[in-house]
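Session log. Operator J.P. requested a structure for one protein chain; no other inputs attached. Running the standard single-chain path with token output.
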Amino acid sequence: MLLSVIVPVFNEVNTIEKILLIIREQKIKKEIIIVDDFSTDGTREILMREENDETKIIFHSKNLGKGFAIRTGLEQVSGEVVIIQDADLEYDPKDYDKLLEPITSGKAEVVYGSRCLGKNNKKSYLRFYLGGIFLTWLTNILYGSKITDEPTCYKVFKTEVLRKLELKCKRFEFCPEVTAKVLRNGYHIYEVPISYNPRLIDEGKKIGWKDGCIAIFTLLKYRFLVE
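Structure written below.
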């Protein structure tokens, strides 16, 4: 089974080489699809020398957002399974095996890596931590699910499932949109514990309170407003 790793990238000059090294070290059959969302800090120059038989690089001609970058990457996927990988070092590709196991064993079609289930994980800023708890609670109330970490980066899908969802997202609303559509279409989200190493805002953390508001609206929209 071929794993397609979609890596949306924007201004990650300090981490992009390290995260690519860790991804490549994983002993699984994979393709790496990197979508640079018009970085301006030197990331693009690094990526220009990173393409190889296992790695495809796509450059946006302007900044379009993380969700749009994921959609661009999805168009290039040839694997049976897709995972989303942020370009920072918060999420560890060494968790790929445990994330893939429920799919390869036939137990699931959608798997989320839960930071809440992971033992001894550090917590992010209080506002991010509480925001994640609230979004997870709201998701469970609206869609009747029982997940523990809705906004986790590590979301894994059978490719056919993800493509059926017809994503519209442009920015950080990828997470609530894909979660809402997965649950609306009757798929069960299987969770496994993952490790998590939150980074600081001055290290490049980009999400803000406005994105949290958009996430809430997105969950409500796909529950009540969009057929």
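Operator note: The longest strand covers residues 3-9.
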